[in-house]
Each structure stands twice: as structure tokens, then as C-alpha cells.
Amino acid sequence: MNTTTTTDLTGTYTIDPTHTEIGFVARHAMVTKVRGAFDDFDGTVVFDAANPEATAVRVTIRAASINTRNEQRDAHLRSNDFLALDEHPQITFVSTGLRMTGDESLDLIGDLTIKGVTNTITIPFAYEGAATDPYGNLRLGFTGSVVINRRDYGVTWNAALETGGLLVSDKITLQFEVSAIKNS
Length: 184
Hints:
YceI family protein, mainly beta, Lipocalin, TTHA0802/YceI-like_sf, Lipid/polyisoprenoid-bd_YceI, single chain, disordered N terminus
């Protein structure tokens, strides 16, 4: 992101939940991947083209909105075995830094809180560009992903398989397709 061409991008943005996906992938029964997403979230991005490293991002996810297209599995994920929604209804991310890694790439550093446990993570993102939509809104697009260990967040439930291995992988890939709209 060359600052001479992005000066007009400086501002506060609202993450557009209808054009953004916060997803995840977990290995199931050691043989396949289960994909899911959170359908209810909000977030803001404060961006200064003159000082991209000062970018501030805040995202709040309503954990009850977990959706793997299987109601029985989703109910189990909402339970105390996994996300413990009664005590921890939200998952949050608050950035603490940003590092430019190329003209169109960056590392977003921040605190991810799941089930009341906070860890610092670094999410590599690619800048997908800026565009003005048919309604006159300036949008920025980013894609990124990071692998976390769910045990680091106190999400430890599992079941042993007869053939060896575990039902649910410890490593979870978080995936982000973000469209953010510049506030007026």
C-alpha cells in the first residue's frame, strides 16, 4: 500500500457483515475438514495512510452465531465443552500493532479472546484493493488466515477414536474475507 496513492483511504471504516466472512476450519476424525463461520459480528478499522502501523482494528463476534451447517454440531460447539456461551458470549479481537510486509501485504498483531482467555496472535493479510460501490461507499478489501491452537484458549474437549487419533484437531485455521466501508 503505497502511501502516495492511499492518502484518500485515511479514515474510520465499519466492517460490512454482509460482505465479510469470519470462518474457521478444523480437522474432524483425522480424515476430513469441517468448515464453519460466525454469522453475527461487528468491527471497526481506523486507518491512517501516513502511518499505517498505527492502524487500529476491533472486532466483536457473537459466539452463538457459530454455523457449521449442522445444528447438532453447532449446539455442541456452543456448550461448555467448547465455547461456553453462558459465561463467554463474545469472541473479541483488538489490534495492538500492524507491520507492513510488502506493498500489498501486512501482519496484523492483536489480542484474541476466546472463552475468556486472551492470547496475542499475528494474522498475515493481503490487501485486495479499494473500490467505490454503486451506492458511493468507499470499500477496502483484505483476506487473511492464521492457525491457532484451541487448547491455548481453554477449548480442550475431545474424544479418542478407536483407530487412534482424536475426533477434533487442536489446530484451527481462522480465515478472514473482509470488506470495510469508509464512514462518512
